[in-house]
Amino acid sequence: MTTPSTIAIDGPAASGKSTLGRRLADSLGYLFFDTGVMYRAVTWLALQRGVAISDESAVTALAEGTPIDVAPASRADGRACDVIIEGRDITWETRLPEVEANVSAVSAYAGVRRALSAQQRRIGQRGKVVMVGRDIGTVVLPEADLKIYLDASAEERARRRFDETRARGSETQLDEILSKVQERDHIDSTRAVAPLRAADDAVLLDSDSLSADEVFARVMELCGK
Ligand code: CDP
What we know:
Elements lengths: L5 E5 L6 H12 L2 E4 L1 H14 L6 H10 L2 E5 L8 E5 L2 E2 L7 H10 L3 H15 L4 E5 L2 H5 L5 E6 L2 H14 L6 H17 L12 E4 L5 H11 L3
Parallel strand pairs: 1-6, 1-7, 2-6, 7-8
Antiparallel strand pairs: 3-4, 4-5
The structure holds cytidine-5'-diphosphate (CDP).
The site of cytidine-5'-diphosphate has 14 residues, from helix 2, helix 4 and helix 8.
C-alpha cells in the first residue's frame, strides 16, 4: 500500500484535529496546514481595521486583497505554524476571544471562502500535506487520498478547550465555553456554503471513545504504517 500523499482531516471545534494532524505530519515528514488560521487571520484583520463583521463585502475585500502567509513554526512557543499578515506575526492574536467569537460569521461568507479555499487548494495540490479544517474533504481537496472526519461530543470538546484555555493562564467557565462551542457548531454546520459535514468517503472516528494515541494509531494504520 502506498502512503497517501494528501490527507484531509475535518471535524468540529476541539475534536482533536490539530493534535492528530501535527503528529501525523511529523511522523510522515509532511507539511501540516491548519486552514482555520486563515479564517482567524481575516477575522483578526477586520477587527483590527474596524471593519464591521456584518459588512460582508468589506470583509470579503480584506480576504481577497490581503496575502496571509502560513509558514512552518519559527519559534517553539507551542505554535503549530506562523501566521503572518503584512510582515506582522499575528499567530497568537488569531487565538484571542474576540476572534474566536466572530470567526464563524466571517467564514460563512461565500467570497471569503472562495478567496481562502483557492489558496488552500494550491498548497494542498503540491502533496505531502496533512490539511485540517471543516471542508477539506468535501470542497478544498475532494480528491484527497485519505479523508478523516474526527468527531466528539460537544461536552468532551468543551472540556478540552477549557483545559487548554486554563493552561494558557486565562480565566474561563466551562458552561460558557460549551455554549460557544455549540453556537460555532451550529453556524459551521448550517451555513449555505461548504457546511461542516463528513465527505461520503471519509473514515469517521469518534474521539470520545478513543484516546489521542488510539486515534493516531488508527490513522497510521490507514496510512499503511
Ligand atoms: O481550533 P478550532 O477547531 O476551534 O477552530 P479552527 O479550526 O481554527 O477554525 C475556526 C473557524 O474557522 C471554524 O469555526 C470555522 O467557522 C472556520 N473554518 C472553516 O470554515 N473552514 C475551514 N476549512 C477551517 C475553519
